[in-house]
Design a protein that fits this description.
alpha+beta; Jelly Rolls; 4-stranded antiparallel β-sheet; 7 helices; 14 strands; globular; iron; Fe2OG dioxygenase domain-containing protein; IPNS-like_FE2OG_OXY; metal ion binding
Amino acid sequence: MECSISRTNLNCISLADPDTQKSVALLKQACLDSGFFYVVDHGISQELMDAVFAQSKKFFDLSTDEKMKLLRDEKNRGYTPMLDEILDPENQVNGDYKEGYYIGVEVAEDDPQANRPFYGPNQWPSDEVLPRWRKVMEQYHSEALRVAKLVARIIALALNLEEDFFDKPEMLGEPIATLRLLHYEDQVSNPAKGVYGAGAHSDYGLITLLATDDVVGLQICKDRNAQPQVWEYVAPVKGGFIVNLGDMLERWSNCIFRSTLHRVVLDGRERYSIAFFVEPSHDCIVECLPTCKSESNPPKFPPITCSAYLSQRYKDTHADLTAYSSNKA
């Protein structure tokens, strides 16, 4: 698959390329430069990609009352209404002009694992309301996790680690992997007035796989400290993923790899995207990797568990659930 449609200078990595060293070199350059790159030839069929977008649209087309029956719970599973999330409180006058739906790793309610913050049963629309919806989402979640693990293997090599470094049970063997469906309103963003589809932020975890429709909206800022900040559009890639690194990987790599500021600026058209956030297991200790520290470059961050880190980040950006207590059916 060609990435010639790209209007940015992001590297494009084919998972079907037998030249592993080429892929490692392309990824390493991208992680040092912008923390964003394209992944194509990942093995997920276009039929499944199309089905996920179609089923996502069907959900967001439901009435507000119907969607609020599946309001996000304390495990971050379910529906997030328009303006629920505020990612850049210093610059936004309202929350993000998007609504979303979280789907995590399915864990039965009576499983001891369900007592942990990011594990538990998902919330699902009934088959009467949306037939086949759950089946499509579960299939896509499984396939996206497979792709994420392949990307993580290339990242490990780029960090001079063993290829299977992230495959361990305490890492991606039992991951916190979250699929998030996103729908942006058909309005025009106005950064000068603090109005955004999604405010400027960096992602929390290890990596994010983003599939989008053909409506351009994603912007990245390669240097968050520049004045003024320079924002560049990232072009969609049909059937491929836009992949970016999260803050957890930047922390792990001692800031060698980049977790880049990004936002969504709308042009008046509706926009749909499918994000897949991948983090290690709850108990994974995120601390400076052995290949990323030296006497002249000591660790910049103290160790922290993945669960503690993510819990705080979600709390910081989402509305308190008690705000919806009178609305949930």
